[in-house]
């Protein structure tokens, strides 16, 4: 029983350190788009996740080179649909 208690105490903090799994769609002014899947650690509020993911990709050199300036950006929980048809189509084309 003591071993089980220790395991639960060790595993409990680990389970709370991971955030929600989200998918994010972004399109840029170069006419290209992409979808990424992420689990931002320590974030569970969708607005915080959206803001953090946007910041990460808006400042990421390779993304800027590929997409240009990001003109459309949306993150949703993994099991939900995006608000735009283009984002849902792009996600359905992914192979993961």
Can you walk through the features of this model?
With about 100 residues, this protein is of the alpha+beta class. The chain is about 45% helix and about 20% strand. It is built from four helices and three strands. It has helices at about 1-15, 45-60, 60-65, 85-90, and strands at about 20-30, 35-40, 70-75. It has a three-stranded antiparallel beta sheet, with helices on both faces.
Rg calc: 17 Å
Q: Structural class, judged by helices and strands?
A: alpha+beta
Helix content: 40-55%
Low-confidence stretches: 1-15
Round the mean pLDDT to the nearest integer and report it.
84
The main sheet comes to:
3 strands, antiparallel
Q: How do the helices and strands follow one another from N- to C-terminus? A: HEEHHEH
- The counted number of beta strands is 3
What would you say about this model in short?
The protein has 96 residues and is an alpha+beta fold. The chain has helices at residues 2-16, 46-58, 61-67, 85-92; strands at 22-28, 33-38, 70-77.
Topology readout:
Layout: H1 2-16, E1 22-28, E2 33-38, H2 46-58, H3 61-67, E3 70-77, H4 85-92
Antiparallel strand pairs: 1-2, 1-3
Name the descriptors.
single chain, 96 residues, alpha+beta, 3 strands, 45% helix
């Amino acid at each position: 029983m003591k071993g089980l208690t220790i395991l639960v105490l060790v595993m409990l903090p680990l389970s709370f350190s991971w955030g929600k799994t989200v998918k994010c769609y972004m399109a840029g002014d170069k006419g290209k788009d992409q979808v990424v899947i992420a689990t931002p650690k320590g974030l569970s509020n969708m607005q915080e996740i959206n803001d953090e993911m946007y910041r990460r990709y808006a400042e990421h050199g390779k993304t800027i080179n590929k997409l240009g300036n990001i003109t459309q950006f949306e993150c949703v929980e993994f099991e939900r649909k995006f608000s735009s048809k283009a984002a849902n189509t792009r996600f359905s084309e992914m192979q993961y």
